[in-house]
What does this fold into?
Amino acid sequence: MPPAVKLATAIAGIFIGGQVVGQLLNRDAAPSLAMFGPAGIGGLIIAGFVTGHRLAWQWGRLIGLVLGPVFLFALLAFVLQGGNNPLMLLVVAAFPASLIWMGLLLGLPKSRAYFRLICPDCGSKEVKATDFLYNTAKCEKCGRRW
Ligand SMILES: [Zn+2]
It folds into this structure.
């Protein structure tokens, strides 16, 4: 596993761990399986990072590059409303920043190679899934499937 993927896995692990601890500390909510659903999905993503599964790569990119900016804009809205406790802002800003970082790390060439997302024939990074679980990829440039 390349260092960039190790770091992305660590970031995902911190978020999943934080979520589980947050749920356990929330005494108002009755324990249920539903509240651990997102943690379960996160666990599957981490397992996919470890095994190099393309679907986990796709979800990691999506969460990092879509949810990260959404949380960043939410933070900006919070700042603009005058809620500017410096420590709180630092903690809240670390959340979207590390999610965006995870998404960017997964897009690096060595990360793409680890997830077998570089065409073995022409070396193109323009690949897409041919099935729902992304078990097979197809090169957009030359049409090779692997
Ligand atoms: Zn190709």
User: Anything to note?
Assistant: Helices lie at 3-25, 37-51, 54-80, 86-106, 109-114.
